[in-house]
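EI: anyone free to look at a 61-residue chain?
SC: sure, send it
EI:
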Amino acid sequence: MARKSKIVKNNQAPKYAIQHRNRCHLCGRPRGYLRAFGMCRICFRTLASRGEIPGVTKSSW
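SC: here you go
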């Protein structure tokens, strides 16, 4: 879980465009971010295993 101060700082407009940091929309985690879904790998996995993300299936062979 990200600190509240880091999440608030991320919501403000950055002084320079390069300072923008992608964060998970659910928990605020800055690492392991999946652009296509806008969330971190941990939140993605929990939602995908529950079947809440359309079009995502668990792979098996």
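EI: The helical segments are 4-11, 41-50.
SC: 👍
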